Every structure is written in C-alpha cells, then in structure tokens.
Amino acid sequence: MGRRRHVPALSDANDAGAVACGLWVHSPIAPDEKLLRAVDALGPVRHIISSNKIHHVSIGPWAETYPDARLWASPGVRARSEVTFTDDLAETPPDAWSAVIDQRIARGSKALEEVVFFHKPSRTLILTDLIENFEASLLRKGFWLKILMRLGGVMAPRGGVPRDIRLSFLGNHRKLRPVVQWMLNNNPQKVVISHGKWFEVDGRDIIRRAFSWVGGVE
Fold first, then answer.
1. Calpha distance 149→134 (Å, rounded)
2. Which of 139, 3, 55, 209 is nearest to 148 (CA)?
3. Hey, what CATH topology would domain 9-214 get?
4. Among residues 120, 107, 112, which one has the least CA distance to residue 194?
5. pTM of the predicted model, to two decimals?
6. Average confidence (pLDDT) per 10 residues, the chain, 218 residues
C-alpha cells in the first residue's frame, strides 16, 4: 500500500555564529541508491525519527548509512526494535529542532502511542498512522481491499483515523483530547501522512473532521 517519508531541513547557529543546515528524517522507508542520492543533495542527515513503535524497520539501514545521525525512539519502540537508539522523543521537542518543529505524544491508545509533529515554517502537521487516506486507483489488490479500506474509514478523499486505531483509544479519549486540541490550535494548512494521499489545503478542517469522535475540542 506504500509509505511516505518526510525530510524537513533544520537550521541552527553554531558557536561561531554561522548557520548550518541538516536534515530531519521522519519514519523512513527502506533506502536505495536513488533515494540516498536525493537526500544527500539536500544536506547532511542529522536526525532519524521513529514516530511510533510500528515504524522502525528501516531505521537500521539509515543508521548504517548515516552513523553520525542521532536516532530518536518513540514510546515502546525500544522493546521491539534491534536499533540502538541514541535518544528518546518526549512530550515537547528537544532544543535540536524546537525552533522549527513542535511535537506532542498522542496518548491513550492501547495499541501504540504516536509522536505528532508540526513544521512551523510551512504550517504542516506530520502524522504517521493516525490518519490514512488511500486512493482507490493505487490499491494493488483490487476490489476486496478497497471494500476493507472503505469500511476502515481510510479511503480518499475522506480518509481519517483507521477504525482499529480509533477503537484502541476506547475509554481514553480524555488522554488524546489535549493533543487534538494542540493540533487544531496550530491551525495547520497542510497535513502530511505516511499512508495515502496527503492533504495540501484546509489542514485544520481535516483534523477537526478526522478526530470529531474524540469530543470536547474547540
């Protein structure tokens, strides 16, 4: 069904006052030569992110390719991954990227806790599995898969939180609610996701619709 990786650029000032740029690689797919050439053309990889405990399989090859990059662990991923992570993601961003990217941990799910990011310069919300939006024309396994995706609430153009993920928050909406409110307060213009077509406009409306079942948000 395909996956998407996100590679924002970071800027920071060193002790001499010079501005250095580096890359922040979110939930990467398996690397190949073409992809790595494209990434190298953008700048040095500084940070490699596991956004939830499901998304870790390809981080090992990226770590081997970029041994100087810091590897950031999401909640629960260390217990199921062979990757030696250097750092743990927290409720708020580290100094390494706080000027450019904000973050929160979506808690309350019995299945996974996902770290949600907001890229400030572009007003882009970065999600992994909390929203999916599959295009029917790109699904490879035909009729029955499309039916399952439609029943799961993840078919474009009105994709949303997969029903199994939504059910995993049962009884814990109050834990998720502050993160949904934070997403809305950021007034995102775009929402990029790992699975399916991303949302280029009306990001706040997309979040409000997708998480309407949480309740209690403004």
1. 8
2. 139
3. Metallo-beta-lactamase; Chain A (3.60.15)
4. 112
5. 0.88
6. 56 42 91 95 94 95 97 97 97 95 97 96 96 82 68 86 95 97 98 95 97 94
